[in-house]
Amino acid sequence: MRKEDVLQKVDHTLLAQTATWQEIKQICEDAMTYQTASICIPPSFVKQAKEYVGDRMAVCTVIGFPNGYNTTEVKKAETEDAIQKGADEIDMVINLGWVKEQRFDLIEEEIRVLKEACGEKILKVIIETCLLSEEEKIKMCEVVTKAGADFIKTSTGFSTGGATLEDIELFAKHVGSGVKIKAAGGIASFEDGEAFIKAGASRLGTSRLIKLMKEEK
User: Fold this and answer.
1) Average per-residue pLDDT for the chain
2) What does each C-alpha distance from 192 to 133, 175, 217 come to in angstroms?
């Protein structure tokens, strides 16, 4: 697989707490240069970034990030605000306490509410695989599918671990046919990226692959 083909599936990401506009602007420039799928940035930069990239690049942002325990009402408001400011894609974090309590009805309803707020925009659901059992991951594949989200996503990159090939393979077996897969966290090389794609991922959340391309040049 060509590196350019891998990059087309990348959400070029900068979510550091200390991110500045100059750094976000560089993310925008690099994403447009290397033709990634999107940029994934903090909500506070969405309006500025969308005005900067226009129709040249999709803007993705995060909701309920990184812990997921905001109320549904707050996540809905965050989502509506991000869409209004120009976000093309939304990556939401589920309430992991509800997973542990097996309140899957609440998680499904929350995803439905945010998908409705997204309208035609893409909704990705982060389930933070490193904190879940295999049984819980399988159940979340079912919930995300039933709720009508566009993607299931492994990780925030802010917890105890990132994407693993085993998790992507598990997702591929258990998500519905309409749900795509995003691997995020710990993708350190083009070999990693290709392996995740071959395992079933349609998107990769990473900043490292463009750094590698720039180093090569």
Assistant:
1) 98
2) 23, 22, 20
For the stretch 156-159, contacts whose Cβ atoms lie closer than 8 Å and that sit 24 or more positions apart, written own/partner, are 156/62, 156/65, 156/66, 156/93, 156/126, 156/128, 156/184, 156/185, 157/13, 157/15, 157/66, 157/184, 157/185, 157/186, 157/205, 158/15, 158/65, 158/66, 159/66, 159/128, 159/130, 159/131
**Which pLDDT does position 159 carry in this prediction?**
97
Residue 217: pLDDT band (50, 70, 90) is confident
In angstroms, the CA 184 to CA 198 distance is: 15
Q: How many residues does the chain have?
A: 217
Query: Strand, helix or coil at 72?
Result: helix
Inter-helix orientation angle 134-147/104-118, to 10°: 40
DSSP state of 86: T
Return the structure tokens found at 24.
């976000």
pTM beyond 0.85? yes
Q: How far apart are CA 113 and CA 76, in angstroms?
A: 7
The residues carrying an active-site annotation are 91, 153, 182
Residues 6+ apart with CB under 8 A from 99: 107, 127, 132, 136, 139, 140
Tokens linked to 157: 């990159």
Confidence (pLDDT) at 28: 98
**Sign (positive/negative) of CA torsion 36, 37, 39, 42?**
negative
Domains in the chain with CATH codes? 3-216 (3.20.20.70)
